[in-house]
Automatic annotation (TrEMBL):
Record's protein name: Transport-associated OB type 2 domain-containing protein
Chain ranges of the Transport-associated OB type domain: 25-104
SUPFAM superfamilies per UniProt: MOP-like
Highest rank taxon of the organism: Bacteria
Organism of provenance: Pseudolysinimonas kribbensis
Region (Disordered): 105-125
Pfam family, one: TOBE_2
């Protein structure tokens, strides 16, 4: 478990390069899900929010959403354009969720401005 701005987020131990101290968390944008209501806590699922949709970009087979979560920053969510799932617009309040096994932890210093300190970071992503 990792504490991020008051949120407890899970990362699978086998997908974490560092298990103590500062950890950079990541999850691919296509693994994130938008929810229009705060979900009930569920085992194996991380949730951040509430946040606000700041941009919506339709790109044919998918839509890219930018979601600003206070004290976290901007999250990018790619959603396939299918008949199911929420359709939200700029200004909508949303929560972002993902399965714990879809996240990963890196030992890169979040203050780095150059290339990642860990050249093997791709192996866990």
């Amino acid at each position: 478990m990792v504490e991020v701005a008051g949120h407890r987020l899970g990362v699978a131990a086998d997908r974490a390069r560092r298990r103590t101290g500062r950890v950079t968390l990541g999850v691919r944008p296509e693994k994130l899900h938008l929810l229009t209501a705060q979900p009930e806590p569920a085992d194996g699922v991380n949730v951040l929010g509430p946040g606000r949709v700041t941009d919506v970009s339709f790109s044919g087979v998918s839509t890219q959403y930018l979601v600003e979560v206070p004290s976290i920053g901007t999250l990018t969510v790619f959603a396939q354009n299918m008949a199911s799932g929420p359709t939200v617009s700029v200004g909508s309040e949303v929560w972002v969720s993902w399965r714990v096994e879809h996240g990963f932890g890196l030992d890169d210093d979040p203050g780095d401005t150059g290339a990642p300190a860990d050249p093997d970071a791709a192996e866990v992503a």
